[in-house]
Design goal:
Number of helices: 3
Oligomer: single chain
Structural class: alpha+beta
Strand content: 25-35%
Order of helices and strands: EEEEEEHEEEHH
Shape: globular
Distance between the termini: 44 Å
Number of strands: 9
Helix content: 10-25%
Radius of gyration: 16 Å
């Protein structure tokens, strides 16, 4: 049984927890973490979710386990979903939604896809994709809308860094 921490509307831990798939109580929030991994060819690592997880392309992310910080959560998600260890991703944006806070991370890394071991119950495929390829996937309704909006935030962050 996996638990998640609950936060108040000021992003302060309440000390309460809920089970992974339980409904989030009103006026409470959970934390979500997402990472954008870019290689030296300016391609982004994307993953196709399994059919029972929506079947769409997206970026790597999830929800930290109870007791884990945001950074611990994203490191764990990458390890679980892709079987790779990362360190020092850059937190570039903190956002909030209806019932969640979302931390967006960026990492520049040349990862050989042959070294990736996907979590087969959540991920069915992976690939490196350019911004234009991701845009086409989104336009064809093959890329998760929320992740695409966050991808736009990542591109804005990268443009500011130039």
């Amino acid at each position: 049984m996996e638990y998640r921490d609950l936060y108040d509307n000021n992003r302060i831990l309440t000390g309460e927890k809920i089970l992974k798939n339980d409904k989030i109580p009103e006026n409470k929030f959970i934390l979500m973490v997402v990472i954008f991994i870019q290689n030296n060819k300016n391609e982004f690592l994307i993953q196709k979710r399994t059919i029972d997880k929506g079947g769409l392309w997206a970026t790597t992310g999830g929800h930290p386990k109870s007791g884990d910080s945001s950074i611990e959560g994203i490191i764990t998600e990458v390890k679980e979903e892709l079987g790779i260890s990362i360190n020092k991703p850059i937190l570039f944006k903190q956002a909030s939604g209806k019932n969640s806070f979302c931390d967006l991370y960026y990492l520049k890394a040349n990862i050989d896809i042959q070294n990736i071991k996907i979590q087969e119950d959540e991920v069915s495929d992976i690939k490196w994709a350019t911004s234009d390829e991701i845009k086409k996937l989104y336009q064809n309704q093959l890329f998760n809308k929320g992740h695409y909006m966050m991808f736009q935030d990542c591109l804005e962050f990268l443009n500011k860094e130039k």
